[in-house]
Amino acid sequence: MAFIDWKDELSVNIKLIDDQHKELIKLINELSDAMKVGKGKDVMEKVLSRLVDYTKMHFGTEERLFETHKYPGYIAHKAEHDKLTKQVLDLKTKFDSGQSVITVEVMNFLKDWLQKHIIGTDKKYSPFLIGKGVS
Ligand SMILES: [Fe+2]
User: pLDDT of 39-94, one tens digit each?
Assistant: First the structure.
C-alpha cells in the first residue's frame, strides 16, 4: 500500500486537475519511500525539489483557471496555496542547509494538507469551473 492512495473521493471531476493531483500524490509517495529506505541526502533533495516545482506549477494551473473564469473563491483559495508554498519552501531551505530532515511528521503533514485541501477547498470550485466548460 502506498503512503497515499488515490481514491474517487479526491476527484474534482476535471481531468487536467485530477491528473496533476495524481502526480502530486506520486511525488509525495516517492519522497515517503525515499525516507523509509533511508536514501541519501542528494536523492531526497532531488525528490523534494521536484515536489516543490510540481506543486508551484499545479497551483499556477488552478490559479490561472480561477482568473480566467473569475472564480469568486479565488482570494481565499490562493491564500491557502501561498501558505503551503511558503511552508514547503522553508522546509526545502532547511533541508538543503542540513538544518532539518524529512520525518514521518513532515510526510504526514504533506499528506493531510493535500487531502484536506483537495476535499475541503479544491472540490468547492468543481461545480463553478465545470459550469464554465472546464473539463
Ligand atoms: Fe488548490
Answer: 999 999 999 999 999 999 999 999 999 999 999 999 999 999 999 999 999 999 99
- Please give the distance, rounded to the nearest whole angstrom, from the Cα atom of residue 30 to the centre of ligand 1: 21
Cell numbers given for 54:
510540481
Cα 16 to averaged position of ligand 1 atoms, centre (Å): 13
Distance CA 119, CA 87 (A): 20
Domain boundaries, the chain: 13-128
On the CB side of 92, how many CA atoms lie within 13 Å of its CA?
17
Nearest to 20 by CA among 56, 49, 58, 66: 58
Which pLDDT tens digit goes with each residue over 10-44? 999 999 999 999 999 999 999 999 999 999 999 99
Contact criterion met (CB below 8 Å) for 56 and 20: no
Contact between residue 111 and residue 3 where contact means Cβ atoms under 8 Å apart: yes
Domain covering 13-128: architecture = Up-down Bundle (1.20)
